[in-house]
Amino acid sequence: MAKRVAVVLAGCGVFDGSEIHEASAVLVHLSREGAQAEVYAPNIPQMHVVDHVKGQPAPEQRNVLVESARIARGNIKDLAELDITGLDALIIPGGFGVAKNLSTWATQGKNCSVSKEVEDVLRAFHAAHKPIGLCCISPVLAAKIFPGCEVTVGHDTECEQWPYAKTAEAMKELGCRHVNSQVTEVHVDTRNRLVTTSAFMCNALIHDIHDGIGKMVREVLRLA
């Protein structure tokens, strides 16, 4: 039978929701591997809305579930309805929505809180020893919830190629082990059954990001 994978989104758009290319890559690679994606998002207001042309906040309000439905082509469920029974794995793409809507990392860094619904889902999959795939900024969720875990967000030295490398230092301060990696690589924490890859934490060609996410998906399915 096809493996069933929960994919949790955080809105629609890199600056205030899920990174669309990452979410699409996850869905494409799950399909290619013969797995069944079940898409969820929390039914909550976004932290704010960003005009993606101007790169500035816009004076309006949007809902995370409603916006995520754009990526899921309407085939989406409220995260509150997620039941891990029958599900084999969990994947959370990146985008600033992870740090703004699924947690408060964007404003509080390592002192952030994770949305209760999101934390409950992560803990449920972890307790059931079901694999969790995280890319781009979403490994910060694991760093906050699972002390001592091993993850990657790419590199820990900031430069033009790795503009968000300070994230790795903050994660280390939370007690997790950060493993430097290239954008086409993944890191597998076998003890915690976590698979992470850097994606758009790196200024890289989009096909390299797509390939790295493909490796993440395949490793998640291998562990499932």
Automatic annotation (TrEMBL):
InterPro entries (UniProt xref): Class_I_gatase-like, ElbB
Record SUPFAM superfamilies: Class I glutamine amidotransferase-like
Record-given protein name: GAL3B protein
Organism this protein belongs to: Eulacestoma nigropectus
Gene name of this polypeptide: Gatd3b_0
